Amino acid sequence: MKPSSSKRKSGEALDADKRLEIVSELAALNGQSKMGLVRTLKTLHDKGLLVDALVETPTEKGYKRQVRRAFEKDALYTQTPYGTMLSQMELPVVDEKMKAKQPSMWYINPFALLFQLCVANVALFNLIKDAVGIAGTKTLRIVLYFDGVNPGNPLAPDPQQLLQAIYWCFIDLPNWFLRRKEGWFCFSLTREIWIKDMAGEMSELCKMVMGVFFAAVGDSFHKGITIQCGAESVVLRATFGGFLADEKGLKELFSVKGQAGNVLCMNCLNVRNRWCRLQPGQQHFWDPDISQRKPASSHHIREMVHRISEEPGKTKREQLEKDFGINYVPTGLLWEHHLMTNILDPCRNYIRDWMHTFVSGGVAGTHLAKICGALHDIGIGIEIVHTYAHNFKLPRCRGGKVSDLYFKTNLVVTDHVKMFASDVLGMVCIMYAFLIDKIQPRGLLETNIECFAALFVMLSILRRGDMSNAIHITLTAITLKHNRLFLDLYGNKDAKIKFHHTYHIPDDMLYLMKCLSCFPAERKNKDAIAVSNASTTHIEKASVIAFLHRTIDYWNDSKACHEIYLNDPRAVALHGQRLSKAASATLTCGEVHINDMVFLFDGSIGKVRSFYQHGDCLSVGVDVHKAISHAKLLFEIDVHDVQFIDARSIVEPVFWYANATGIIAVFPKYD
To answer: What pLDDT score was predicted for residue 446?
Structure first.
C-alpha cells in the first residue's frame, strides 16, 4: 500500500509479485486474521483510499484469494536448506469416518524455522552460537511442551475446536530468554478430537513429534543442522532434554497410570498409592524419608515395556500393567525402538513442572487453605486476611492492585483455593507477609508459620530460575522440612499426588540446570487462542500459519533478542546528552514499570521513577528505602537516598504497602 512516486506514474498498476509482497507484509502485522485483513482492504478500496488496487479484481472474493496467498507465502514458498517452514503429516486415525476427513498435523518445521529466524535476526544467531561454543562443540538440549487449548467458550467447549498446543525450546539458552513466551517456539496446534481417535492417542502423537526432531533418517537435531547469518554459519546439534507438561499431560505422553494406579510414579519403584497395603520396603507417596526410595532407571522402564509386550495373555498383561504402572500402548512413545534406543531416557525426560505442582491446583493452594483454617481456629477469620490483602500495591505487570478475589470466603475451601496459578503465587506472598507482620509478633502458630515460610522459600528459589549443586542442596533440604512440618501439622489426608512430586522437583531442576516452568508457555497459549479464533473449518492449518506469521514478525524486530530494553522509548535531552526515556522496561526479571517497588541486590527496595538508556547502558531512577529488619519485611518509610542504578541491580518487582512504622515489602528469600 504505497503512494505514487516519481519512479512510477500515478495509476500505473503494480505487478503481481509486488502486490503479493505488500499484502504479505500487512498479513504479518500483529498476526491478524485473514478475514479481518480482507474486510479492511476491501473497505479502504471502496472508499478510494488505496492508490493502487492490491488485486487485479478488487472484489471481496479477489481479496480473499490474495490474502490467502499472502498468509501462505512465507509458510509454503520461502525455501530454506530444510524445505519450507510449514509441513504436513497425516494422522493415523482409526475411525473410518474420521479417515475420510484426511486429518493431518500441520506443523512448523523446526529446522527451517530456526534457519530463517537466524538469517533475519543476528542477535538470535549470536545467542545460539555462544551457546554451542566454538565450532559447535557443545550439544544443546531440547524440551517439548504439550498442553490443551480451548479457543471457544471455556464454559461450553466445542470438541471440534479443542487443540493440543506443542511448543519447544533450547533449555541451554539464558534464563531471561526462557522466561519470555517468544523463547518458546510453536511446533503445532492439532485438533484433540483427531488425537483421541488415534490408537495410541497422545503417546502416539508424541512419538510422531519426536520423529520430526530426532528422525532416524533425514534431517535431525541429533545429527546436527547448519544455521547461518550473513557469511557466518555454525553447526547446531541437540539432544532431547525432556517433556514439560502438567501431571495429566505427562501421564498421557508416557502411557503411565499416574495417580489412578497403585504405582503412581515412574521414578520410584517402591512408592504406592494411599489405598495400597504396603509390602516390606514400600512407602506411601507422601513419606518424607527419601533415603528409603528405590529410584527407577531407564533400564527398569525398558524391561517393564518388554515384559508387557511379550506377555500373550490379556489377563496376565493387564496384571503386569497394574504391577508396573505402565499401560500397554504398542503404537506409543515407549514402544518406538529408535527413540527408546537412541534418544529417550524415560526417567530423566519426565520433567515435573513446578507451576502445576505448586500453584495450579497444587501444594501451595492446599497449604493456603490449611493455614486459613489454622487462623480460623484461633479466631482470625479469612475476612481479616482479605482486608489486610487490600493494603498491598502490586507490580504493574500483576495488575497494580490486589484482586477482590484474593482470600474471598467462597474461593477458599478446606483443602484448596479456587484461583489461577499467578493469583495463588500472589496469595502466598500476602499470606507470608500477614503471618510475619501480624501473627508472629503475638507468638501464635509458630510451627505453622515455620512451615509456610518454607513454602515461600521454595517458591522464591523456583521463581528465580537459577540452579546449581548448592541451590539443589538448599531446595532439597527446604522441601523435606516443609513436607515433614506439613504432615505433622495437617496429616496426610490433604497430601495429594503433587505432594509426592515436590520431592522430585529439585532433582528435575538440577538435571536441567534451570528451574523451568510452564508460565511462559501458558502465556503463549493466549496467542494460540487468538490465532485459532480466526477459523473453524481448517482451524489447525490456519492457526499454525497465523502463529508462524506472529513468530516471523516478532523476530524481525532487532531488539527481540536483547536481555534488557526500553518499551516504547522516546528521545529526550538530559544535561546536554541525547537519551531514550520510557515508562517501562523489559529487564532480566521481566517487565518493570514506573511506580513499581523493586527489590535490589544490595537488600534495599526502591520505587521506580524513570527509565533512561544511553547506548547499551540502561539506568533506573529510584527512591531508595533501606532495610530496618529483613526478618520482619520492614523498610524505612522516608527516602534518604535517591539515585540512578544499573537496571541489572533489580532482582524483581515486589508486593508492598506503607504503614505507620515503615514499608512492608514481600521480597524473595532463598534460604
So the answer is: 98
439 vs 375: CA distance, rounded Å: 9
Instruction: Name the phi and psi angles at 420, rounded to 5.
Output: -70, 165
The candidate with the shortest Cα–Cα distance to 514, out of 476, 466, 455, is 466
Paired sense of beta strands 140-149 and 238-245, if any = parallel
Q: What is the pTM of this model?
A: 0.90
Q: pLDDT per residue over 474-503, tens digit each? A: 999 999 999 999 999 999 999 999 999 999
How many CB atoms lie under 10 A from the CB of residue 325? 25
Instruction: Return the half-sphere exposure (C-beta side, CA atoms, 13 A cut-off) of residue 578.
Output: 2
Euclidean distance between the first and the last CA atom of the chain, given in angstroms as a whole number: 59
Distances (CA, A) of 373 to 217, 377, 383, 510, 610: 59, 6, 12, 35, 43
SS3 311: coil
Distance CA(502)–CA(480), nearest Å, equals: 9
Grid coordinates representing 485?
512440618
Contacts of residue 463, defined as CB under 8 A and 6 or more positions apart, other chains included, come to 425, 515, 652, 668
Pairing of strands 650-653, 597-600: antiparallel
SS3 per-residue string spanning 148-191: EECCCCCCCCCCCCCEEEEEEEECCCCHHHHCCHHHCEEEEEEE
The tens digit of pLDDT for each residue in 292-307 reads 999 999 999 999 999 9
Alpha-carbon dihedral angle through residues 17, 22, 27, 28, given to the nearest 10 degrees: 100
Gap between the Cα atoms of 87 and 103, Å rounded:
14
**By percentage, how much of the chain surpasses pLDDT 90?**
76
In this structure, what are the phi and psi dihedrals at residue 472, rounded to the nearest 5 degrees?
-60, -45
Burial of 250 (0-12, 13-18, 19+ CB in 10 A): buried
SS3 59: coil
Structural contact between residues 272 and 285, judged by C-beta atoms closer than 8 angstroms = yes
* Cell numbers describing residue 306: 518388554
